[in-house]
Task: structure prediction
Amino acid sequence: MRWIVWLVMWLAAAQAAERGPRIYIVTDMEGVAGVNSWEQVTVGERRYEEGRRLLIGEVNAAIEGAMEAGASEVAVWDGHGGSRHLSVELLDARAHLIQGTPTPADYYLSEKRFEGVFIIGQHAMAGTKNGLLAHTQSLRVKELTLNGKPVGELGQVAAIAGHFGIPVVLLSGDQAACDEFLALQPKGGRWR
Ligand SMILES: [Zn+2]
Result:
């Protein structure tokens, strides 16, 4: 049985090398560069439109980077609360946009269409010291654990993607989110 698994993996890798990897981008808002207030991430609040502009800039930069590095496809899942913060009007036209609720338990990854995940604009888990707008889903959640270990939203994305054999290859967020991610994947590098 094992060689079949190996063969399937090898074929998938060879295919990806031929056409360039398909990248799946999960977005959030609280960790976008320049966002520092709930007013920037809450629909209807005074600085919400500013928050959306900062978000789309960071998402489009990620799409451009993926394409320049040879990606053959990019899909963006609007992952901030309610999944209705990005606009196809402003999104880099080379990417697909996924929006709407409820969020499926597989985060749209069970088809195994993608070879890598980017997490963009992420924040640290609830209770993190010096975490900017840190929380875990709802502001009422104090701690969420997975196999006894506290995890935040980025840890949940990484666990679900990992379940389907898809690595998280990039994260952008505030310092505390980056530290949280590196603790999960210590072999990762850091760019400032
Ligand atoms: Zn959010």
In short: The chain has a mean pLDDT of 92. Helices lie at 2-19, 48-68, 153-163, 175-184. Residues 28-30, 80-81 surround zinc ion (CB under 6 Å). Residues 42 and 48 are 6 Å apart (CA to CA).
